[in-house]
Records
---
Amino acid sequence: MAKSIEELRAIREKMRDQIDLRHKDENNIRVVVGMATCGIAAGARPVLNAFTEETRKRNLTNVTVGQTGCIGLCQHEPIVEVFEPGKEKVTYVAMTPDKVARVVLEHLVNRNVVAEYTVGSLDTLK
Amino acid sequence: MNFVRNHILVCGGTGCVAAKSKEIIEEFNLQLQKHGLENEAKVILTGCFGLCALGPIVVVYPEGSFYSEIKVENIAEIVEEHILKGRVVEKLLYQETVKEDSIASLNETGFYKKQMRISLRNCGVIDPENIDEYIAFDGYEALAKALTAMTPDEIVEEILKSGLRGRGGGGFPTGLKWKFAAKEQNDVKYVCCNADEGDPGAFMDRSVLEGDPHNIIESMAIAGYAIGASQGYIYVRAEYPIAVERMQHAIKQAKEYGFLGNNIFGTGFNFDLEVRLGAGAFVCGEETALMMSIEGQRGEPRPRPPFPAVKGLFGKPTVLNNVETFTNITWILLHGAEAFQAIGTEKSKGTKVFALGGNITNTGLVEVPMGITLREIVEEIGGGVPNGKAFKAAQTGGPSGGCIPTHMLDIKIDYDSLMAVGSMMGSGGLIVMDEDSCMVDIAKFFLDFTVEESCGKCTPCRIGTKRMLDILEKISEGHGTLEDIDALEELSAHIKENSLCGLGQTAPNPVASTLHHFRDEYLAHVNEHRCPAGVCKNLLQYFIQQDKCIGCTLCQRVCPTAAIAGEVKKPETFEVIQDKCIKCGACIDKCKPKAIIKK
């Protein structure tokens, strides 16, 4: 099936989303889920899946979702950290897939930190 | 559909495939399934990363972690640690990227820092078997632009303005070649791609065909439009099975998408491509011989003029460019002639790919801007000469080029500077030699190659190179005379002037340049019957230093001709029986206290 130039460009747009992962963009937001044994035991995998699912649904191509090892606060796992360029990192604790939807909407889309989920909200650390 | 969060790129170049990268891909898929990650991570076969010495290479995105020398056994660990838990497996990373407390980006490592990738821009980045990935990286946009927004004359002008010169070795301005062919009035014209890469040690064309085949298709179609041709041929050597397979696959995909065939992009322009296999004759890389071979005739060069642009394939006007030359065409159309012109030196624009080989730490494929110094390539990108040995010379241009000695390490790499010192750019083989290399032996090696590959059509090349080889053999056996050296020089000049094609005209270069830069070494062979580097077997004898010998008899056991005398635990009795010794070196390799020397 011969393609027109418009079709060529449509393929390119479609494929760009898929290869974004291979471009390191300085403006990217990085979401990192703690996936050491403690995190996995506390349910980090559903949280990770929820993040990938939510970011895909909202077509947030500037967000990469990754994993990391044990952050050290094992009792508060699953822990998720959000790195925005030029800002202090934000650490969310005791995450669940339900909380993810709100973090994605409020933090990743609207750029407002969901304070009540962060590590700062824990009484023990105050 | 699930959101893929990791891309695992596995090198599928010939070097890495030989080192089992196919098995690695299978193992990755298996392990990912085992952990239920098959929808989260995607394994992608890609082209050559260039660092072939450390293959197989695996790169995991988005982190960009660069794993080197990966074995099938390592995959389980990478999947479990990196993909599942997100912990980069540091011990398997390319060690140059590992710093004390952080992991450096690949582009900061010595090997990649000074490189500039135009020709190889998609190699190691895209999946060469997926046309959509090529499109995502602006693929076929240059063709679309050429066909809809430019006239053939404008394209020729653009290429002319860019200053692009032939990357196959000759360095003829590509735009001029196209202009000549475009000017010819003829209903039938052809575009050919020379992928008959024959220089020993050079493999950049193979890497492009394997890693970015659509780039060649697109550039050839542009060339077809520019000169008025509707048929192209890619002449690849049959010894490149992976390249041939990927190229054919790419042509099929391009036809399905209508980027090859009739009425491309609805503009009425027709272009079709065919792959032709070469049977591995070095001379078929010469343009007229290559076209004879495509026609189905014996691969022998014919005199020029008429040049191929006037009377080429099947007697029709033909543009023939090398693989690497074509890779620049799409880039120039996308970024403009000015951007290309900004790179390089006054008369050599753009970049050049070199296949680094020989006595060098990082063997592999590197692409550098023209005008970089040889020292930067050897010491910074190549990581220097290994094992604490000293650099002696570098050979560029393979059997057609010459050697560049230590005191010229700061030479700028471009067509004209290399010509000026008696070497040439060639297709880009760069062989580094350390202090243990004998220059007479090197000259003999390259001449042996040309003698073997001479097609025999013209006398200077057929008989002249053979005579030169005879003389070199005589010298390396210690029977040479000073007259022989004069004869070598005389023959060099004759062969250069009188041969029919480039093969013969450049064949004496390795001899002439070693004679020029390392004359004292030739003289040592002739006058003192001595090989300073200790390579020429007939001029060497092996000796056992009895004060270092421990009498272990290991040397006696490995000696194939029982040429070592001595009683166990009595070092003072050990010696080499010279008339039995065949100088194979087996004893030296085995001797633990390094008591055996050759001199």
---
Amino acid sequence: MISLSSYLFISFTLFVAGIAVMIARKNIIAMMLGIELILNSAALNFAAYTRFINNNLEGHLMSLFIIVIAAAEAAVGLAIVIRFFQIKETIHIDDAAQLQS
Amino acid sequence: MEYTISTIAPIVLLPFFAFVINAFIVKRFTTLAVIISCASIVGSFFYAARVFFDFLNVFSADYYIHKTFTWFDLSYGSFPFKMDMGIYIDNMTATMLFMVTGVASLIHIFSTYYMHDDKRYGRFFVYLSLFTSAMLALVLSENLISVFIFWELMGFCSYSLIGFYYEKEGAGNASMKAFMTTRVGDVFFLLGILAIWSVVGSVSFVDIYQAIGMGKFNGLYALGIPLATFAGFSVFMGTIGKSAQFPLQVWLPDAMFGPTPCSALIHAATMVAAGVYLSLRCYPLMEAGHLTTFIAYIGGITAFGAATIALVQTDIKAVLAYSTISQLGYMVLGVGVGSYNAAFMHLITHAVFKACLFLSAGSVIHSLHDHHTHAHVQEMPRMGGLKSKMPYTFLAMLFCTLAIAGIPFFSGFVSKDRILGDALLMALDNKVYWVPAVLGFGGALLTAFYMFRMMFLTFFGEPRDKELFDHTKKETLSWNRNLPLLILSLFTLGAFYSGSLTGQGFIKVAGEKYEWFQTLIEKPNLLKFNNKESQAFGFASNPSSETFQKSKYDSNHGLSAEKAHHVHHVHHIGALISIVIAFSGVFIAAMMYFWRSWNPGFWVSLFSRWYRALQNKYYFDDLYIKGFIQKGLLPLNNFLAFVDMGIYDRYAVDGWEKVNRVMFTMAKWFDNIIVDTVAVDGTGASVRFFNVILRTIQSGKIQFYFIMIILVLTGYIWTLNI
């Protein structure tokens, strides 16, 4: 029997990996991949907790929401990236620093 | 008519609104302003006539209407401080209202003739309206404070009317003199009001009568003087100032600097009448203060002294002015000898004939126009023989002169004779009263003399200034010149005041005839005086049969038959003496100025020192100017100026400047160091300092922000766990 802690461990691993990607990579698309990993870890957490504690479908429902939000976020993020690339001809994150005084 | 404050108010408010409206429109619509003034006073006259005849219908001596409303109420705990305003109408008030509005209406109408060519034609009517409304309000007042308010308002109006020709030399000084002299009396009057308030707790006439009747003044002393005497004296000082009695008479002769109709108003209906009216109103107080002897002396001295000065005046208005002072002296003498009724009667009759005399004098002066100086002539040495030029004015003036001289069948005889009769009666009782009585009879002789001297000099004989006489137009009848004179001279007949010529009255009650004046006007009966808020109107609630018993002349006034007989006897003797005196005065005047058998110059040279004294008005002006003002008030003034400039200004004001300088230095230091450097600049510096630290956080590196977020969240969760 796979216990809750195993799910949580995998979720934690995904989360840390996502954070690491977000911090380490300078490529905006790679950073968005990191965000997807973080969202997925959260979705996994929901599913796991609802399965082992409440044993109903609320967590699953929430996971579905998260997937939809992730898709929408990816669409918006990619659109920003494309626009950014058209202006700057690069997708290096450090070039997006106009707000710095 | 139901008598309430609002139904009585139009008597005062009509002239007052005329004043308010005219004050705004007088510059552009002069004629309209004049019409408004005249119409309002005539309307007021009809109102007053209504009141007067209603009171005549009731025909009861102690009937009165008293209505009040609270002006302000500052009572605190047991300390009463409440002021009422309202109306107090008894027979005296009603008669005064009738007289004031009537005389004032006629003066208004005459003014449209006299002032028509004046460049300040409209403004004169503005003042007249205010003056009349102030007098009416004073007459209606139910307490001393409101009397005082309108008293002062009249003082202001007389000030502006006397100084009406302010470009004329002396007019400004005369108006100032009138105002300041009456102020002297007013200060005492105010003191008297305060004294009364301290005892009675109210200044309403009704409360005062009641308090005197209950003996509230008994045993109260201020500085060793009985409080009733103090209060009565102070109030009487107000009368002395306003009615130009002996020590303060100096202002009235100078009041002739004003236009002649305004002199008529001041000398007859309003200003000087107010003083006597006040002392009549406060008569119980004078009696309670044992002031009657003093008052009689003041009245006698004034009546005689002013008459002597009038002997030598050459200005026609000056003669009339001094005769006013003299006649006011008679009224005060009447108050002093206790002939309340006769004093008030003389006030009314004098108002009528003096207004007529002044208007006639105005008519004469207005016609005499000097073509060299372009001024009106009022010097009698330049007149003479004017009878043929102005027959109607002459007739009116003759009637009034007969009245003032005390010729039988004229009003002046009726009233003056009764005052003198009472004075004689008092003198027989008490030797102290001989002086005022003799002065009164002597004054009557002089009055007859100088009034007829004026008549003879003005209207009879040869014209002394031929050129002036030839330039004078013959009088043609015109309504606004002759109608007022006609009406006023008609009312100089004694029958209007004393009933019919046979001594029986016009008014018939229960089959008997009564003289209305003597029956209606009575001293307030203090014992019966209870403060009734209002009395129902009419016979039924006020049984008049009872009140007739108290009338002095119709019944025996509570005296025994023997005593009453004595009173009648003395009055007959007094009347006989009066008649003899009056005719001998007229005879002497005729001998000197009509037949010219006696040379006046001989008498002048015989009494040359007295003549000079009379021409200088007994040196009263010199005494006041050189004595009081230059010796007393001017040094005081200089001393006060020294205190003000040398001490207050130098030490207090300039010293305060030094204090301010020190405080200014301190404030400047505080401002510079604390406020500016520390607070204002310090804020900026701290912002700059923290800016240096905080700006390093905003690096523009998104991943750095992200790390910060992670760290903060981690730290947050970590602290939650602990």
